[in-house]
Amino acid sequence: MQKNDILTVTCERLGSNGEGVARFGDTVLFIPGFLTGEKARVKVLAVKDKIAYGKVEELLTPAEARVRPVCAVFGRCGGCQLQHIRYRTQLAFKTELVKNTLKKIGGIDAEVSPCIRSDREYGYRNKLILPIGQKNGRTVVGFYAERSHRIVETEECPISEWTDKVIYAVRNFAEKCGLDGYDEETGRGQLRHIAVRNLGKKFIVVLVVTENIKGVDYFVSLLDGIFKEYSFFLNFNKQKTNVVFGKEYRLIKGEPTYTAEEAGIFYEAGAETFVQVNENVRKKLYEAALSLTDGEETVIDCYSGGGLLTAMFAKKCRKAYGIEIVKEAVECAERLKAANGLSDKMVNITGRVEEELFPILDKEKNAAVVLDPPRAGADKNVISALIDSDVRKIVMISCNPATLARDLGLLTGTLVWDEKGNLIKSSAPTGKYEICSVQPFDMFPQTKHVETLVLLNRKSDGKGTDFTV
User: pTM here?
Assistant: First the structure.
């Protein structure tokens, strides 16, 4: 097999990124936009050893699960990978994705419940970040192509309802005020990103710039025509880096934070506060996480963001601690605590989980631990210390099946560190925890991403747990 060969192949399954997987002789091909059972003529784009990558040139036998993508730039934009797949098939794919990833990376053969659906297949995202760049001497706004920082220009995004208006405003602003999108290679250009968050129909808009810019009042007038109630920040990022935000925020209009309500709890969020992007699925996820605890427990919520889930645990349980490194988020959690009458049941701590968790465990011997880390997963020291602790129950929430599999493998003993510091599969697992349930949630319809909720109980004798849920 060589580059530019045209082959006729049949898709055997979907890969972890939602791409089709086919075989030709002893070579495995990965082909975006190809569905299980389909037959197509495929052009080979690259070959390395027994792995090849290709694209569909002609679809010969389409699958029943194939639908027409909604977005005009689907297949070029890297934001969505699954718009060509019927939604119920997307859910089945994500269920299998979690199961297969746990097995392949973590050596875990666990029963995985069917993925919980989102009530909205499109228009569900409450936050988007769009890069602003240069193309042929003009400013463009869009999303990055898959595995690159090449901007795919677009007029709208169907997974969020207000994107078209924001994109138009940025382009208008740049043209009228003589501003340029940012060029990552040269470091030139003033406009880097535009970020928008919807918090209960109140919006937080952040324009990332490299320097003080002219025409800010004009941009505010454009935003006035889009949003009824909003805050507008300038964020300054002068560094040649892939990191979106710089450290300096300047509030131009509106309030620094806004308040919203969920499950009878009023909570706040600002420009830096983490909030789940799909409100409908977030509600289902948090209700499921709450169901795994009882009223007599103390809960330690690690990576707690603005404190919404911590407050839910505090309202139900004996007491709840929240640990979060972002200062703004902890300040929001403190105001949440006061506003909801939880001062005697909720403790918010600013700091790293790996530093703050275990002093709390020294005081709260029977606490349940909730881990909701970023995509990189929990810190190695946190996992190691939990293994050595007496924690009886761990509730894990993860947006990355690969790092979830790694962390679960360490907790259950299917993965161990060897003497060289390499992570390897154990031939005779002797972990102190066992998995009781694995429940995926479709927090991100139309994409390859999935949120997963896992309950682990500590074993009492290597065969079972010392309590029931």
Answer: 0.93
